[in-house]
Amino acid sequence: MNSLTLPAYAKINLTMDVLFRRPDGYHEVETIMQAVSLCDTVTVDVEDGKGIFCDLAPGMPETPAFPRNMENLAAKAAALYLRDSGISGKKVSVTIEKNIPSQAGLGGGSSDAAAVLVALDRIFERGTPYPELERLGAQIGADVPFFIRGGLQLCCGIGERLTALPALPQMFAVIVKPKFGNSTARIFAELDKKSGLSRPDTGRALSAIQSGSTDELCECVFNVFEEALPGGLAKTVLRIRELMFSGGAQAAALTGTGSCVFGLFSDELAARLACETAEAEGFRAYLCRTVGGR
Description:
- It is a single chain.
- This protein has helices at about 75-85, 110-125, 130-140, 145-150, 185-195, 200-210, 215-220, 230-245, 270-280, and strands at about 5-20, 25-50, 50-55, 90-95, 150-155, 160-165, 170-175, 220-225, 250-255, 260-265, 285-290.
- By secondary structure, the chain is an alpha+beta fold.
- It folds into two domains: about 5-165, Ribosomal Protein S5, domain 2; about 170-290, GHMP kinase, C-terminal domain (Alpha-Beta Plaits).
- Strands 1, 2, 3, 4, 5, 6 and 8 form a seven-stranded mixed sheet that branches.
- Helix 1 packs parallel to helix 2 (about 110-125) and helix 8 packs across helix 9 (about 270-280).
- The protein is globular, with a radius of gyration of 19 Å.
- It starts with a strand and ends in a 5-residue tail after the last strand.
Protein backbone atom coordinates (compact mmCIF):
# COMPACT_ATOMS: atom_id res chain seq x y z
CA MET A 1 0.00 0.00 0.00
CA ASN A 2 1.42 3.36 -1.01
CA SER A 3 -1.70 5.54 -0.81
CA LEU A 4 -4.35 6.06 1.83
CA THR A 5 -7.29 8.44 2.24
CA LEU A 6 -8.65 9.28 5.70
CA PRO A 7 -11.24 11.67 7.10
CA ALA A 8 -9.88 14.45 9.30
CA TYR A 9 -12.74 15.29 11.63
CA ALA A 10 -13.39 18.67 13.25
CA LYS A 11 -13.86 19.04 17.01
CA ILE A 12 -15.98 21.05 19.37
CA ASN A 13 -15.11 21.98 22.96
CA LEU A 14 -17.94 20.90 25.23
CA THR A 15 -16.15 22.57 28.12
CA MET A 16 -13.21 24.96 27.82
CA ASP A 17 -11.29 26.32 30.79
CA VAL A 18 -7.95 28.11 31.04
CA LEU A 19 -6.40 27.52 34.45
CA PHE A 20 -3.27 29.70 34.45
CA ARG A 21 -0.38 30.97 32.36
CA ARG A 22 2.69 28.78 32.70
CA PRO A 23 6.29 29.97 33.10
CA ASP A 24 7.00 28.81 29.52
CA GLY A 25 4.37 31.26 28.22
CA TYR A 26 1.81 28.61 27.34
CA HIS A 27 -1.53 28.35 29.12
CA GLU A 28 -2.66 25.35 31.16
CA VAL A 29 -6.05 24.27 29.87
CA GLU A 30 -8.73 21.79 30.83
CA THR A 31 -11.18 20.98 28.08
CA ILE A 32 -13.54 18.20 27.02
CA MET A 33 -13.35 17.79 23.27
CA GLN A 34 -15.70 15.86 21.01
CA ALA A 35 -15.06 14.92 17.38
CA VAL A 36 -17.84 15.71 14.89
CA SER A 37 -18.55 14.49 11.38
CA LEU A 38 -17.64 17.74 9.61
CA CYS A 39 -14.33 16.77 8.07
CA ASP A 40 -11.56 17.37 5.60
CA THR A 41 -10.52 14.44 3.42
CA VAL A 42 -6.77 13.80 3.48
CA THR A 43 -5.02 11.63 0.90
CA VAL A 44 -1.39 10.63 1.45
CA ASP A 45 0.66 9.19 -1.44
CA VAL A 46 4.14 7.74 -0.96
CA GLU A 47 6.61 6.85 -3.71
CA ASP A 48 10.35 6.56 -4.17
CA GLY A 49 12.06 9.92 -4.40
CA LYS A 50 12.37 12.87 -2.09
CA GLY A 51 10.40 15.89 -0.99
CA ILE A 52 7.15 16.58 0.85
CA PHE A 53 4.33 18.34 -0.93
CA CYS A 54 0.91 19.51 0.25
CA ASP A 55 -1.86 21.05 -1.80
CA LEU A 56 -5.62 21.28 -2.14
CA ALA A 57 -7.39 18.39 -3.82
CA PRO A 58 -8.16 18.93 -7.54
CA GLY A 59 -11.30 20.96 -8.08
CA MET A 60 -11.19 22.71 -4.70
CA PRO A 61 -11.55 26.49 -4.92
CA GLU A 62 -8.35 28.46 -4.41
CA THR A 63 -7.99 30.16 -1.04
CA PRO A 64 -5.12 32.25 0.34
CA ALA A 65 -5.94 30.87 3.81
CA PHE A 66 -4.67 27.42 2.80
CA PRO A 67 -0.89 27.11 3.33
CA ARG A 68 0.88 24.89 0.82
CA ASN A 69 3.82 22.51 1.09
CA MET A 70 5.99 22.96 4.18
CA GLU A 71 3.88 25.88 5.46
CA ASN A 72 1.07 23.41 6.09
CA LEU A 73 0.85 21.45 9.35
CA ALA A 74 0.08 18.32 7.34
CA ALA A 75 3.42 18.57 5.51
CA LYS A 76 5.22 19.27 8.78
CA ALA A 77 3.63 16.14 10.22
CA ALA A 78 4.90 14.08 7.28
CA ALA A 79 8.44 15.45 7.68
CA LEU A 80 8.42 14.75 11.40
CA TYR A 81 7.15 11.21 10.93
CA LEU A 82 9.80 10.33 8.33
CA ARG A 83 12.57 11.84 10.42
CA ASP A 84 11.46 10.18 13.64
CA SER A 85 11.04 6.82 11.90
CA GLY A 86 14.39 6.99 10.12
CA ILE A 87 12.71 6.59 6.73
CA SER A 88 14.51 8.11 3.75
CA GLY A 89 14.27 8.01 -0.03
CA LYS A 90 10.54 8.63 -0.07
CA LYS A 91 8.44 11.35 -1.64
CA VAL A 92 5.23 12.18 0.24
CA SER A 93 2.36 14.04 -1.40
CA VAL A 94 -0.61 15.18 0.68
CA THR A 95 -3.80 16.40 -0.94
CA ILE A 96 -6.60 17.84 1.17
CA GLU A 97 -10.25 18.30 0.34
CA LYS A 98 -10.82 21.25 2.65
CA ASN A 99 -14.26 21.49 4.24
CA ILE A 100 -13.47 22.67 7.78
CA PRO A 101 -13.35 26.49 7.89
CA SER A 102 -10.18 28.16 9.18
CA GLN A 103 -9.90 30.53 12.16
CA ALA A 104 -12.97 28.80 13.51
CA GLY A 105 -11.93 26.91 16.66
CA LEU A 106 -12.59 23.58 14.95
CA GLY A 107 -8.99 22.37 14.69
CA GLY A 108 -8.95 21.71 10.96
CA GLY A 109 -5.20 22.12 10.40
CA SER A 110 -4.37 20.01 13.45
CA SER A 111 -6.78 17.30 12.34
CA ASP A 112 -5.17 17.21 8.88
CA ALA A 113 -1.76 16.77 10.53
CA ALA A 114 -3.05 13.94 12.72
CA ALA A 115 -4.54 12.19 9.68
CA VAL A 116 -1.15 12.34 7.95
CA LEU A 117 0.59 10.74 10.94
CA VAL A 118 -1.97 7.94 11.09
CA ALA A 119 -1.94 7.42 7.32
CA LEU A 120 1.86 7.20 7.08
CA ASP A 121 1.99 4.76 9.98
CA ARG A 122 -0.50 2.52 8.19
CA ILE A 123 1.21 2.86 4.80
CA PHE A 124 4.55 1.83 6.29
CA GLU A 125 2.83 -0.84 8.44
CA ARG A 126 4.73 0.18 11.56
CA GLY A 127 1.88 -0.25 14.05
CA THR A 128 3.09 2.63 16.23
CA PRO A 129 1.04 2.81 19.45
CA TYR A 130 -1.26 5.81 19.64
CA PRO A 131 0.55 7.33 22.65
CA GLU A 132 3.73 7.48 20.56
CA LEU A 133 1.93 9.09 17.62
CA GLU A 134 0.41 11.55 20.08
CA ARG A 135 3.90 12.41 21.33
CA LEU A 136 4.87 13.25 17.76
CA GLY A 137 1.66 15.19 17.25
CA ALA A 138 2.33 17.39 20.28
CA GLN A 139 5.47 18.65 18.56
CA ILE A 140 3.28 20.03 15.77
CA GLY A 141 0.41 21.58 17.69
CA ALA A 142 -1.49 21.34 20.97
CA ASP A 143 -4.66 19.88 19.41
CA VAL A 144 -2.95 17.29 17.20
CA PRO A 145 -2.74 14.56 19.90
CA PHE A 146 -6.52 14.68 20.37
CA PHE A 147 -7.11 14.08 16.67
CA ILE A 148 -4.90 10.99 16.57
CA ARG A 149 -7.70 9.09 18.29
CA GLY A 150 -10.62 11.52 18.23
CA GLY A 151 -13.88 10.58 19.89
CA LEU A 152 -14.53 12.15 23.29
CA GLN A 153 -11.57 13.07 25.49
CA LEU A 154 -10.49 15.22 28.40
CA CYS A 155 -7.48 17.26 27.30
CA CYS A 156 -5.16 18.91 29.84
CA GLY A 157 -1.74 20.58 29.88
CA ILE A 158 -1.61 22.61 26.67
CA GLY A 159 -4.00 20.01 25.29
CA GLU A 160 -1.53 17.15 24.90
CA ARG A 161 -2.41 15.15 28.07
CA LEU A 162 -5.37 13.01 27.12
CA THR A 163 -7.90 10.89 28.98
CA ALA A 164 -10.23 8.89 26.77
CA LEU A 165 -13.88 9.13 27.85
CA PRO A 166 -16.75 6.72 27.17
CA ALA A 167 -18.79 7.51 24.09
CA LEU A 168 -22.16 9.14 24.64
CA PRO A 169 -25.35 8.52 22.67
CA GLN A 170 -25.04 10.25 19.31
CA MET A 171 -26.07 13.88 19.19
CA PHE A 172 -26.37 16.35 16.36
CA ALA A 173 -24.36 19.55 16.20
CA VAL A 174 -25.04 22.68 14.22
CA ILE A 175 -21.80 24.60 13.73
CA VAL A 176 -22.24 28.24 12.76
CA LYS A 177 -19.42 30.36 11.33
CA PRO A 178 -19.57 34.17 11.52
CA LYS A 179 -18.22 36.16 8.60
CA PHE A 180 -15.01 36.95 10.47
CA GLY A 181 -12.40 34.89 12.31
CA ASN A 182 -10.76 35.41 15.66
CA SER A 183 -7.16 35.81 16.81
CA THR A 184 -6.09 33.09 19.25
CA ALA A 185 -3.25 35.23 20.61
CA ARG A 186 -5.55 38.20 21.12
CA ILE A 187 -8.23 36.28 22.99
CA PHE A 188 -5.68 34.64 25.31
CA ALA A 189 -4.23 38.09 26.02
CA GLU A 190 -7.69 39.46 26.79
CA LEU A 191 -8.46 36.50 29.05
CA ASP A 192 -5.24 37.10 31.01
CA LYS A 193 -6.53 40.57 31.92
CA LYS A 194 -9.82 39.27 33.33
CA SER A 195 -10.64 38.35 36.92
CA GLY A 196 -13.74 36.77 38.47
CA LEU A 197 -14.38 34.68 35.38
CA SER A 198 -17.32 32.33 35.03
CA ARG A 199 -15.96 28.83 34.43
CA PRO A 200 -17.32 25.48 33.32
CA ASP A 201 -17.98 22.78 35.92
CA THR A 202 -15.67 20.24 34.33
CA GLY A 203 -16.02 17.79 37.23
CA ARG A 204 -19.78 17.68 36.88
CA ALA A 205 -19.46 17.32 33.10
CA LEU A 206 -17.15 14.32 33.54
CA SER A 207 -19.59 12.73 36.00
CA ALA A 208 -22.39 13.21 33.47
CA ILE A 209 -20.31 11.51 30.78
CA GLN A 210 -19.53 8.58 33.06
CA SER A 211 -23.23 8.14 33.83
CA GLY A 212 -24.21 8.55 30.18
CA SER A 213 -26.43 11.57 30.83
CA THR A 214 -26.37 13.88 27.81
CA ASP A 215 -28.99 16.09 29.46
CA GLU A 216 -26.75 16.80 32.46
CA LEU A 217 -23.70 17.20 30.24
CA CYS A 218 -25.51 19.82 28.16
CA GLU A 219 -26.13 21.80 31.35
CA CYS A 220 -22.34 21.96 31.81
CA VAL A 221 -21.40 23.14 28.30
CA PHE A 222 -19.47 26.40 28.61
CA ASN A 223 -16.41 28.10 27.15
CA VAL A 224 -14.42 30.53 29.30
CA PHE A 225 -13.26 32.38 26.17
CA GLU A 226 -16.77 33.80 25.84
CA GLU A 227 -15.74 36.00 28.78
CA ALA A 228 -13.00 37.67 26.71
CA LEU A 229 -14.51 38.21 23.27
CA PRO A 230 -14.20 41.64 21.62
CA GLY A 231 -17.49 43.53 21.46
CA GLY A 232 -18.48 42.79 17.86
CA LEU A 233 -17.80 39.10 18.10
CA ALA A 234 -19.42 38.88 21.54
CA LYS A 235 -22.67 40.23 20.09
CA THR A 236 -22.49 37.83 17.16
CA VAL A 237 -21.82 34.84 19.42
CA LEU A 238 -24.77 35.82 21.60
CA ARG A 239 -27.01 36.10 18.54
CA ILE A 240 -25.99 32.67 17.27
CA ARG A 241 -26.55 31.11 20.69
CA GLU A 242 -30.03 32.66 20.77
CA LEU A 243 -30.76 31.14 17.35
CA MET A 244 -29.64 27.72 18.55
CA PHE A 245 -31.66 27.77 21.76
CA SER A 246 -34.76 29.10 20.03
CA GLY A 247 -34.40 26.20 17.59
CA GLY A 248 -34.39 23.63 20.37
CA ALA A 249 -30.68 23.23 21.17
CA GLN A 250 -29.90 21.65 24.54
CA ALA A 251 -26.61 23.56 24.70
CA ALA A 252 -24.74 26.19 22.70
CA ALA A 253 -21.28 27.67 23.10
CA LEU A 254 -18.20 29.01 21.38
CA THR A 255 -15.77 26.29 20.32
CA GLY A 256 -12.04 26.73 21.00
CA THR A 257 -11.07 30.37 20.69
CA GLY A 258 -13.75 30.84 18.03
CA SER A 259 -15.13 32.19 15.93
CA CYS A 260 -17.54 29.26 15.42
CA VAL A 261 -20.45 28.58 17.74
CA PHE A 262 -22.11 25.18 18.01
CA GLY A 263 -25.53 24.05 19.16
CA LEU A 264 -26.16 20.52 20.44
CA PHE A 265 -29.40 18.74 19.60
CA SER A 266 -30.83 15.32 20.37
CA ASP A 267 -33.31 15.65 17.50
CA GLU A 268 -31.98 15.65 13.93
CA LEU A 269 -34.98 17.49 12.45
CA ALA A 270 -34.65 20.32 14.98
CA ALA A 271 -30.94 20.54 14.21
CA ARG A 272 -31.62 20.68 10.48
CA LEU A 273 -34.15 23.47 10.91
CA ALA A 274 -31.77 25.44 13.17
CA CYS A 275 -29.08 25.07 10.53
CA GLU A 276 -31.42 26.47 7.88
CA THR A 277 -32.39 29.36 10.17
CA ALA A 278 -28.74 30.28 10.72
CA GLU A 279 -28.09 30.21 6.98
CA ALA A 280 -31.14 32.41 6.36
CA GLU A 281 -29.56 35.00 8.68
CA GLY A 282 -26.43 35.07 6.53
CA PHE A 283 -24.17 32.69 8.49
CA ARG A 284 -22.35 29.65 7.16
CA ALA A 285 -23.79 26.67 8.97
CA TYR A 286 -22.90 22.98 9.05
CA LEU A 287 -25.10 20.13 10.24
CA CYS A 288 -23.08 17.26 11.65
CA ARG A 289 -23.13 14.53 14.31
CA THR A 290 -20.82 13.41 17.05
CA VAL A 291 -18.42 10.62 16.06
CA GLY A 292 -16.33 8.09 17.95
CA GLY A 293 -12.59 7.53 17.88
CA ARG A 294 -10.45 5.71 15.33
